[in-house]
Specification:
InterPro entries: HMG_box_dom, HMG_box_dom_sf, HMGB. It is found in: Mitochondrion matrix, Mitochondrion nucleoid. This protein has helices spanning about 5-20, 25-40, 60-75, 80-95, 95-120, 125-155, 165-170, 180-195, 195-225, 245-275. It is mainly α. The chain folds into three domains: about 5-125, Orthogonal Bundle (DNA Binding (I), subunit A), CATH 1.10.30; about 125-155; about 165-240, DNA Binding (I), subunit A (Orthogonal Bundle), CATH 1.10.30. Helix 3 crosses helix 4 (about 80-95). It starts with a helix and ends with a helix.
Length: about 280
């Protein structure tokens, strides 16, 4: 069980954070919360009874999940992003001793997760194990793709150019017929097929202009990426050209041959004179 001084400090901090309960009630509530967090056995749940064990959360997320009901009760209608922000602010203010119960519980959960995962994998057939591995790789690839997309958005990568149908779709989607998004999409596509060639030519020209916009913005963006040391985000054909090592070696070879020929001529002339 956590020390009494630790629980008192946590209670005092929560009282200042929310400013809704008296010091006595806050102390009792916080003391019970920290104690339960420290001694409650960790449970490992999965979305399916026959599926793999669920990966445990970190100590920070354990704290955030514990504080979420209190935050939503004291701030009705609060958004999830604001809950994360308030919880993160409270976590930062905790001392290492106050964070210790959550981190220790997370560590025990990770150790138990490894045991449960090995036990689960031992029951799989070779085909099932390969399917699980493939599914895990697909999830990892998708996660990496999401992270890369967020990074590119943060770095301000220009949006790709749109074709004529996409431009027409974006302009007419809100006024399209149908109740759901799929019905609206079908009606817009049908309207696109029914318009005249002259009307389509307008959107074709807009698409060509958008290609020019994208090309110019990408050129400036890639130049900036090279300047800040991120050439890995630049297309290969847009990287600065470098002199080939083979051409340099050939130049040196020609120069060396020229020097050798000069030395040979000078040696031959000295030999003739000595005779």
């Amino acid at each position: 069980m956590a020390p009494f001084g630790l629980m008192t400090a946590g209670a005092s901090w929560l009282a200042k954070s929310f400013s809704v309960f008296s010091c006595t009630s806050t102390l009792a509530r916080c003391s019970s919360v920290l104690s339960a967090t420290y001694i409650t056995p960790v449970k490992y749940l999965s979305s399916q009874a026959s599926g793999p064990p669920k990966r445990p959360v970190s100590g920070y997320l354990r704290f955030l999940l514990q504080q979420r009901p209190d935050i939503t009760r004291h701030f009705p209608g609060i958004k999830s992003t604001e809950i994360m922000r308030k919880g993160a602010g409270q976590w930062v203010m905790l001392t290492p001793e106050q964070k210790k119960p959550f981190n220790e519980a997370a560590q025990r959960a990770r150790e138990q997760f490894k045991v449960d995962l090995q036990r689960y994998q031992a029951l799989l057939t070779t085909e099932q194990f390969q399917q699980e591995t493939q599914a895990r790789m697909q999830r990892l690839t998708k996660r990496r793709s999401i992270i890369q997309k967020r990074e590119l958005n943060t770095l301000g990568k220009p949006k790709r150019s749109r074709n004529s149908l996409n431009i027409f779709y974006s302009e007419h989607f809100l006024d399209a017929r149908g109740l759901g998004p799929q019905d609206k999409m079908k009606s817009v596509v049908q309207d696109w097929k029914n318009i005249s060639l002259n009307q389509k030519q307008i959107y074709t020209q807009l698409a060509e202009d958008d290609k020019i916009r994208y090309k110019n913005e990408m050129r400036l963006w890639e130049e900036h990426m090279v300047e800040i040391g991120r050439p890995d985000l630049v297309r290969e054909n847009m990287l600065p050209t470098k002199r080939k090592p083979a051409a340099k070696a050939q130049t040196i070879k020609k120069g060396t041959k020229k020097v050798i020929d000069t030395v040979k001529k000078a040696t031959a002339s000295k030999t003739v004179r000595s005779k």
